[in-house]
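Reopening this ticket.

The earlier resolution said the output was attached, but the attachment link was broken on my side. Pasting everything inline this time so it's all in one place.
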Amino acid sequence: MTGELTITLKGYGFVELPNQDNDIFIAKDNLHGAVDGDIVEIRFMKQKHNKQPDAEVVRVIAHQNQPATIEGIMKKYKLKQEFSADVLQEAERVAKLKIADCMKNRVDLRGLPIITIDPADARDLDDAVSLVDNTDGTMTLGVHIADVSEYVTANSSLDKEAYRRGTSVYFPDRVLPMLPTQLSNGVCSLNPNEPRLTLSVLMTLDKKYNLINYKITKSLIQSATRFSYDEVQAILDGQADHPHRAMLLKMAEITRKYEHDRQARGEITFDVPEPKIVLDENGQIASVYSQPHNLSHRIIETFMIMTNEVVAEHCHKLHLPFVYRIHEKPDPVKVIRFLSALTPFNVRHQIDFENPTGFQYQDMLKKITDENVKIVVSSLALRSMQKAKYDPHCVGHFALGSTYYCHFTSPIRRYPDLLIHRIIKMHLDNQLTRQQIDRLNAYVVAASQQSSQTELDAVAAEREVDDLKCAEYMQDHLGETFHGIVNGITDFGVFVYIPENTAEGLVRTENLPDDNYLYHDGTMQMIGKKSKIRMGDPLKVTVIGVNLHKSKIEFTAKDK
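Inline output:
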């Protein structure tokens, strides 16, 4: 286990572990030369009676005076890019699998107008979509997902490595794939004009786009066109033309209908920007900006949600061993903390901390008209939520307002998707014996726990790398001024978020605009003799310092 070491004035230490609520105590004699701020690996020692076990430092991964690096972050979370020789050899062998040998119980859908829509720089294309009109006035929406399980079989070296990694990890300058690139970027990726093995969910919609039937089948497809999100958005906006324009416009109509339906059932939409870090040809940061979430993105998002819900409900009704994607109701203590943080915003709400609903959160967010305030409140609301996770039991997805949900649509980069593909195919091929079901019932428990943890580690690592890159970017902008939003207030200063590049930094109390500010905990405000600073307030800041070891940015603000 790895984390950052903090040493107290009395000489003992605590290690903050990623995704853990409680810090780990380290006695002075167990520090073994590590100093405050070091990133260390620890191990637990023998537990004494009912006390928490002691821990000791095994090794220092990164010293406190060293700048943070992506390699150091990878070590911290035990992430690897390279694969072992046996895994690579197996990938080379299965990549040569002949499609003709995999056609049993598989339908040929290569005649459909199938497209992919992804980021322009994507290499692992998991999903493709199609839409055709039927003679009876209905239409069939097809979502076609790479059949990775045909190549990655149970208990193989590839499968064991995918289970261990759990997920692909995406950094600005590299990808740590769950599977070797011969599969992830090669025979499994739904590249255009190449036949690919898939699992397809064919959903029949009526004239009002209501789902009236579906079929899940093994399939063979061939994508006709690879689109980027920007290319599709230009077509939807009328700035470009394409033979698939009519299909894309109808896909947009379906998306709007299902977005409305999800809102009507209590889905919560959080307005939380995500950074996009662009590197130049030398690997240096060219720009950092907030990623757009246009209609083109929402088409794929909506179709994937529809598919995940159909598959989850289908498998739940069949009582198959399964891995669900669950999101439990918020913890009352976290909701109370969130409602207290809302006080400075004067936002009216009807959130019941003991029994909150998606509708209550949704109604509260809709009442906020100030976009700066909405960004801050959305972030605070998100922190009040439980973390979504994988589980063999279906308890629904709170934020989506969904009764049945799973992750089915990204088997190249997520192990739960790969596993449930395997289970569905065993069912389709009548291969689920009682012995197999008993084995899988135990396996989905272990896989759910493992995949939930690897996801937490991946998200934490990606966030740390983004913070590091934002800090490196702002180091090149020392002395420059930006327009920010106050998104946190403490007794030692205020935190400011910069919308144009998603950077976040601290303005210490002594660097606030000239006034004698005092922190008021009850209202989370800085109150001076002439003015006050509240969460969501605009604040013009200048970059005065960057700590690359901790990926921290400091600002000064001389006027609001």
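Reporter confirms the inline version is readable. The first helix runs from residue 70 to 76. The chain has a mean pLDDT of 92.
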